[in-house]
Design a protein that fits this description.
alpha/beta; globular
Length: 215
């Protein structure tokens, strides 16, 4: 009976510690999620500024059509579409955006190297240096914008980055927790945002400089 009583106390103590540990992790994670949802843009703050380039991150036809529409409005000199599949050329991109035989074709370039958001930023940085551009308008989905801005500002120090979020009607943020697909999308992007934020935060605290910063 004594051994059984000790065993029960040990199980109870372990369960209590595990519960406290889970609470201590879940509370800041949940608070961070609320912060992340609050910084997802729900409007375009700057619609007028001219930039040297418009950079479109692949991931949806709305991004492409938005960026090309901005180019047609002469909001920039050129468009760079980052993360394009190897088999897709500029002509095909224009077709996908509903702009076949578009006169803008000579002002559009595609990058085929990037596989993720970090790669988008690296690929764009190389392209920007080749053209000696110093400002860009970044076009990507609204929920993807916070993480994209971190990566781009790290990879392109000194370059002006204007945020141009694509706000889709298909992603209903109201009562998002009741929509499994929307919840999975937002929580997944939040976790990626956390990893990206703390990656650069740790880099600074540990004194590890980013190679593009020239330090």
């Amino acid at each position: 009976m004594l051994l059984t009583a000790c065993g029960r106390r040990w199980i109870s103590s372990t369960a209590f510690r595990l519960t406290c540990g889970l609470v201590s992790i879940s509370l800041p994670w949940g608070a961070g999620l609320l912060y992340f949802l609050a910084i997802i843009p729900n409007e375009i703050a700057d619609t007028d500024s001219y930039t040297d380039a418009i950079v479109i991150l692949t991931g949806g036809s709305e991004r492409l059509s938005t960026g090309l529409r901005l180019l047609a409005q002469n909001k920039a000199e050129r468009v760079f579409v980052s993360g394009v599949h190897q088999s897709v050329n500029v002509e095909r991109l224009l077709q996908l955006a509903g702009r076949p035989e578009d006169s803008l074709q000579q002002r559009v370039e595609a990058g085929h190297v990037a596989k993720d958001t970090r790669g988008n930023a690296e690929e764009t940085a190389t392209w920007m240096r080749e053209h000696e551009f110093r400002s860009l308008r970044l076009v990507t989905s609204s929920y993807h914008m916070p993480r994209s801005l971190i990566e781009f500002r790290e990879e392109l120090p000194g370059v002006q980055v204007v945020s141009h979020p694509v706000i889709s009607d298909q992603m209903k943020r109201a009562l998002w927790w009741l929509r499994p697909r929307t919840a999975a999308l937002l929580i997944g992007e939040y976790n990626k945002f956390l990893l990206t934020y703390f990656k650069y935060r740790w880099s600074r605290l540990s004194g590890t400089s980013h190679p593009c910063n020239g330090e």
